[in-house]
Amino acid sequence: MSRDHRFIQWFQQATGHAPFPFQVRFACDEALPQLVHVPTGLGKTAMVVLGWLWRRRFHPNETVRRGTPRRLVYCLPMRVLQSSGI
Predict the structure, then answer these.
(1) Of the candidates 16, 15, 7, 82, which has an alpha carbon nearest to the alpha carbon of residue 51?
(2) Interval 6-44: pLDDT, tens
(3) pLDDT digits over 48-58, tens only?
(4) Which residue, 3, 1, 2, is CA-closest to 55?
(5) Domain residues for 37?
(6) pTM listed for this prediction
(7) Nearest by Cα to 45 from 69, 15, 68
(8) Phi-psi sector, 54: left (phi>0), alpha (psi -120 to 50), beta
């Protein structure tokens, strides 16, 4: 079973949906992209959170696992916090 196929199965189990190709690349490629240009609503949050977790814990290449930061810092724009009443 390929590394991509294992991630796809894991992603589907976590979300109930098949990942988009950009989500698979983020999680499975050796290097992280410098820029991700994807329209709103297509799963950038899932890409980052699940992709980071996959890279950190399950990536078959130990160098990638060790090279993935131990902490994920998640920032929301103020307009999102204001419109949700937080």
Answers:
(1) 7
(2) 999 999 999 999 999 999 999 999 999 999 999 989 999
(3) 999 999 999 99
(4) 3
(5) 3-83
(6) 0.83
(7) 15
(8) alpha
